[in-house]
Amino acid sequence: MAEEGDGKKTMRESIEGMTERNAHLRFEEYKLSAYVRKTSRWIANLDVTGRAETLEMGSVKVDQDGFEKLAKEVGMTATLEIGSVEVDEGSRGKGNFSRFLDDFEKLAKETKRIAYVECVLNPILEKELMKRNYTKTIDGENTYFMVTPSREEGG
Q: Tell me, what's the pLDDT at 74?
């Protein structure tokens, strides 16, 4: 899949301007490219404060028009997801991804979505996500999600 845009748009412009649920996007401001998804997931036992007691994921395949309606009916939660990310070689270790993640979490909160990071393979990133109050899924996969309201409330 080709990257969308030239990286000159803001994160909000790039993500809100996505014509599909998922896209490879270039974020020049952060010197990185990311595979981003706007979707819904079933996250079990998500209470009103945004904390999860148990986490389970499921998938339902429906056409584009029926997706949001079905998601609400079966209790799915709106998510803003990072599927993969690659920081430019000469820009690693300089805080670019941390700044990107700060802004990504802020955008998720502003759009009433859960920030979700998939398939974390880097142990340094895993530790950073845990410091940021990300919760690991119970199935043991390297997948995390974060509920943005709990971070603001200090939880």
A: 63
